Every structure is written in C-alpha cells, then in structure tokens.
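Milestone M4 deliverable, item 7.
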Amino acid sequence: MKKTLRFYLPSMLLLLLLMVLSGLYSVWLGIDVNFDLLNYHLYNPYAFLNGKIGQDVFAAGVHSTLNPLPDLYLYWVFFTFFNSPKWIGFFMGLPYGVLIWLVYQLARDVFRHTMYPKTYAAMAAFIGCSAAGIMSQVGTSTNEIPLGVLHILAFWLVVRALQNTQRTYGVYVAALLAGAAAGLKLTGASFCIALTVVLLCYIKRFEKPWKVFILYALCGAGGFLLTNGYFMWQNFSLYGNPLFPYYNQIFHSPYFDNFNVTESHFFPTNWLQWLFYPFFWAFTPTTYVAEAEVQDSRLALFILTLLVWVVLIVKNRLGGIKKEWAIPLVVYCAIGYVIWLVQFSILRYAAVLEALCGIVIIGVCAAVSQRRWGLYLALLLLGVSMWGYQAPDWHHEMFLKQAVFFDEKPQIEDDSLVFFMHLPSSYLAPLLNPNATYMGGFVSKPEEYPEEFRETAAQRNNISAQYYRFHFEDLQRAKIAQHQGPIYIISVDWPMIVNPATLARFGLKGTRENCKRFVTNFTVYSTDLAICRVEKIN
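Output delivered:
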C-alpha cells in the first residue's frame, strides 16, 4: 500500500497543481462571453433539464438540436457560482490542467527509454498544450479540451494494450471513451476513425483478433449511443433526421434542404493550401482557420516531423523510442489530420492534434540523437514553436458581482411567447423567466429593414448562406398563431429592432413605443438590447 502511494502520489499532486494553475489562468483571462455560449451552450442544458426540447421552437436556432450533455458542467458551474463569477472562470479552467497532465504522462511513456524522459515529456506537453487553438479555448465553453482528454486517453489505453495483448480490457474501455466523446460532439468522430486504424494495424497480435475487434466496435457504438442515442431519437422524432441538420442529403428532413451542412469558408482554396495548409498561418497572422487572427508554427512543424517519423520508422532508427509507440502515434496523428483537414479545417476542432504535436516534434529529436544533440535540437524546435505566436480570443469580459449583469431586468409573464429576433440571445431564457416559451434563430433579411438601417443590418447578418436553407418559419408561424398569451421579441439590434417587414412574415406587428431598452454585460455585439411587446396581425 505504501509503495503504491509513493508511486502515484507525485503524479496526483502534479495533476492537482496543474488544475489549480489552469483555473487561476482562466480567472486571469476573464469570464467567457463567446458567441456560442450566448447562443446555445447555456440554453441547451437549460432546455434539457427543464423539458423545453420540443416545447420551445429553435430558441438557439439550429444549434438547439445539438447534444446538451457536454454543457451540463458549464450550466452547473454557471448557476452555482452566479453571484461569485470568478469561481466560474476557475472551474471552467480545470480541464486544461487535466489535458496538460495527460499529455505529459503519455509523453513519459513514449520517451521512457530515452536519455531525458522527463525533460522530453515536459517539453512535449508544453509545445502541444500551448498551441494557439488550445490556448484560445482555456476556460471557454467550446468543450474541445475536455473531449480532447477523452480521445487522448482512449489512444493511450489502446497503445498500452497493444504492448500487452493479454489485457484486452484497455481496448474496450478506450472504445467506450472514444465513442462517448464522439456522441457528445460529432466532430470527434475523426479521431474514432484514427483510433480504429491504429487498432487494425496491430489486430493480429491478439489471440482472437476478430473477437477483440467486434467487442471494440460494440463498445464504441455503445459509448456513442450512451451519450447521444436519446438525443438522436429526439431529433428523428421532431425533425425526421437523427443527426439533424447534418447529412440531410440522406435523411431528407423537411426542415432543411437536402444538403450536408459544412463550414466551407474555412477550407483550403487551392491545391497548395490543401498540401501545406498549416504553413499559411505559421509565419503571419491570418483568419484561415479561425474567426479571429491566429499565428502558430506548431502544426507546420508537426507536418514536417511526421514525414521525418515515417523515414525513421522505415529505417528503424528510433533511438530509445519503441516502434509500438512510434507507429501508432504517426498513424493516429496522420489520419486524424487528414480527416480534420477535409471535414473541418477549423482550428478549434484540432485540439487533439495540437495536444499531441509536441510529442511528435520532440520525438523526432529524441530519435535522431540519444545524446545531448537531441536535447539541443528539441530546445531549438521549442523556440521555433514560440516564434511569432498569436492565439485568437473568442471574447472575454471582466468579472462583475454577478455572472450576468442587467441594468434593469425585463419582466416577462409565465404564459408569454418570447421570440429572440437575432442570434445570439437564448442565454437569456433561464435568466428572464424559465416558465415562458422561447423561439428564435430566424434570419432578418437586410432588404426588410428600413432604409437607414440596411447597411448595418447587412454587416450584422453576414452569416453563412447555408442558414438560408433551414425551413423553420412555418413551424414558428404555427406556434405564434396558436399562442394565446403575451408575445415579445428580444433583439440585439437596438434601435433597429422594430422591423415591420420581418415581423409581418410571422404574422406580427409592433411599434418602437412598445420597446424597452436594457443593458447586459453578456453580448458580442453591443451592450444595448431591447424587448418589445408585439401583437398578432388580425
């Protein structure tokens, strides 16, 4: 018992220290006020916990259909510490500390037989976990960091199982974790594919390979259904597509065109970018893979060193690194990168690749030379990775006495129907009146605004054309027609809020005299919002 305690205690103390430091760093950044948090990261768990799914009508737009489970932690932290918001920042930063610890522990296994295992592991964890995409998400609600922990842990378990094929339970636990992570957020499916390819490369090592693979597949599917099965059934029941709105060219939901949703404006635009995309933000700030400017050479170094890894593996010149670590790492990262590139090309979704890139980069140095030259080369690449570095910021605000401050909170009756006229506003639902019914997410067309506001409206509504493919308006019009209580609209567009042409599309009318401006610290557009009492057109 004492021996076990001495073995694990330093690791657990390191984990605790990294979590505390990460929490404090998150507090230093300020409270997270990113667009998606205001739009659905708070609304979705609220809707799930309060039976609002199917009762409200797309209050957060299409994002209302996303799995709410990843945001339950945020929801609990947010409302538990609503009056002590610095604790919100602290607790939201904790997963980052877990990620650093996990990458460090994985790297120690990879570099165990090199001359500087702890030094290399620390450098690898620093390079990977300080990457721009990861750093931009510390303390935020994007969920890529905690879900990245699950994917990296799954990879670690599989590779450890490959080195001791008598203990197959690690493979099944890994499948369960990876499947659950993909169910929580579908963007993680690319790393499930990469993990499966790693397993298939070594499947013959097991005494009963097909049995192992079948059980692995069943555990992966079980993990996916455990976290997403219920919500897929809900989406199918409500909208005719279990993955709504994705892959609608297969499911043909009447609420969306027969088209696959993609954020295509992040994709490479020519063959040179397809081949060398990370180099395009390695040396100059760009918005190629993020909504805000980013500059980071880590993924460019990652691509170069992956190619070197392939040469070293072929020539069997890996120094103190075992092939059982080198090959799975290269396969997992290479396949994960290719799928990420062709499916998303969005830096936020590359958190797993960024976290592992340090192991790939430092691993080449350790393999090339087992003497001090390997360490010197590692220090050089660490320095290069910090050159010209710029991480994007998804918007933070200073902490106030409450997480969300109102100058004067609007009063809404229980039997009200509240229409969020523009995104992102649905975070207001649990703060105003949880007993009201909420709708939202429709697109106001610039040509429908009064002439003096059209230019501003065109800039404000500069969204992807695919959002015009949604067909929610008939459902929303029917809800409005059936509603017997008060009807309100809430908008971030003050003083443009009363837009007669847009209101008329939904059988509504209103005047600016029936609007009341209010202020909140939680907005990405302006502190000025407004709520208006509107009426049905007779």
